[in-house]
From TrEMBL:
GO terms for biological process: methionine biosynthetic process; threonine biosynthetic process. Keywords: Amino-acid biosynthesis, Methionine biosynthesis, NADP, Oxidoreductase, Sodium, Threonine biosynthesis. PROSITE patterns: ACT, HOMOSER_DHGENASE. NADPH binds at residue 106. This is Homoserine dehydrogenase. It is an enzyme of class 1 (oxidoreductase). Its cofactor is a metal cation.
Amino acid sequence: MVDSIRVALLGAGTVGSQTARLIVEQADELERRVGARVELAGVAVLDPSQVSDPWIDRALLTDNALELTERDDVDIVVELIGGTTVARTFVLSALNHGASVVTANKALLAKHGPELYEAARKNGVDIYFEAAVGGAIPIVRPLRESMTGDRITRIMGIVNGTTNYILDEMTTKGLDFATVLKDAQAKGFAEADPTADIGGFDAAAKAAIMATLAFHRDVRMDDVHVEGIEHVTDSDIAAARAMNRVIKLLAVVEQDSENGAISAGVYPVMLPADHQLAKVSGSFNAVFVEGEASDDLMFYGRGAGGAPTASAVAGDIVTVARHRVAGTTGPDIPLYSQAPMADAADGESSYMLRLSVADNVGVLAKVSEIFANHGVSIRALQQLPDEDEQGNHELWITTHSVTDRVIRETAEDVAQAKDTSSVLSIMRVFEDAQ
């Protein structure tokens, strides 16, 4: 009979600290849920002298993470240090030494996931990672277990709280990107180097994980088409508002029902203002999952933060601990699909283009002709009455569905045309059915 489950914690930052607190302060409740005592076996950090959390026993601190992963008395290794190099080494070491792993490391899974899943399978242990995608939102477990009897066709969601906060502040307060970013950094919603968030790379890693689970194919971060929000302006926000729309950064993964090709992308999208995702405010996240049998499911909640993320980590610890007590493991992650990855340039959507054009006779006709020459059907066209400092007017064009490749080629020709000053922005426009 198993009397205790010993947990080694790698990292005691924001999430690691809160995870340790839950293990220590909820020890009696966790024991009732698991059937054995869950206790910390060690906490690895770069500098033990810097850890001041009262719930972490000083005697458990070490700067030797690898040694913790190799200990025979450790049942579960919780990796919360981030990155894809030493984290990979530590996780593989833990799995190969017979410990199960819980991690919140999206970048690691998006780059080395299949290797780690196979190592867990080969060694007869678990690897769980609920916190890697949606923080406190339970999205991994449904994709990995609950929906395995259904065919998932599409996942679309807001999976980065920083970018959602920035876009929401720009929308509701009329502020420009730079101002909101600075405010987000001051409040701790954005990192000092916000590239991973605003560039869409954080969301891309999560998209890769969701696509891998949903479509049973090895999808890496490099397979995900990425566009961030760094070029979204207050003028784009105003244009969306005038069209009764809201701009959100979405992660979208889907599988073509005819050829089976898988597409994965992260990009800003103009959504109808009454769309459920358009109403997700602040740093909250939300994910839509579409299944053939289940139809539409929505998961909503806090996608980041120490306590919410630690909640998901602790949930995985309980699940894995139960498996250890019972002498079992959870389901493997089968990656049997050979479906091709679709070319992002072939993806179709409606688009909205903002152009700067001269106030000359024939300009609209010329622009329309260029669109027609590329086979792009215009749904709506509007020229704004106000002039800029150069005497140009903004022209808004919304198209019917067209491939990304064609709309980019069209925009290039428009930009080179006489009387067209520049293409100010190009953005996808989603309808309710998309």
